[in-house]
Write a structure and sequence with these properties.
Elements lengths: L4 E4 L2 E4 L7 H8 L6 H8 L4 H8 L3 H9 L6 H9 L4 H20 L5 H7 L1
Antiparallel strand pairs: 1-2
Length: 119
């Protein structure tokens, strides 16, 4: 998974790294948009800490969800729903986003059949 950072040339790049950002460029090349959950947080003008506090969850859990490491962050969906956010469309977009993050990276270079034939 692309996750939240990219290491290249001995440097670490994240979505918030100032200047040219190879991670953002790679995401664009692969057609991967921003995480809908992170997008919502930014639209609300909140930091991860502020949103986590309002949702009653940990910053770590929110961070994992924003990186796509959690398939279905139920605690976040439940808290957003209690806050009046319509979560069904958000959940759908999150699921689509998460699948798009993984799909280009898990396509095997060698198929299992080719491995079996080589043995």
């Amino acid at each position: 998974m692309l996750g939240g950072s990219l290491y290249t040339g001995g440097m670490r790049f994240t979505e918030s790294t100032p200047g040219p950002n190879p991670l953002a460029e790679l995401r664009r090349e692969l057609g991967l948009g921003p995480n809908p959950l992170a997008e919502l947080r930014r639209e609300l003008g909140l930091t991860r800490v502020a949103l986590a506090v309002r949702l009653g969850t940990s910053v770590g859990y929110l961070s994992l969800a924003e990186r796509g490491a959690i398939a279905f962050p139920r605690a976040i969906w439940d808290a957003l729903e209690r806050a009046g956010v319509e979560v069904d469309p958000l959940m759908e977009r999150y699921d689509e986003w998460r699948r798009a993050q993984v799909t280009p990276l898990v396509t095997p270079l060698v198929t299992p059949l080719e491995v079996a034939q080589a043995l």
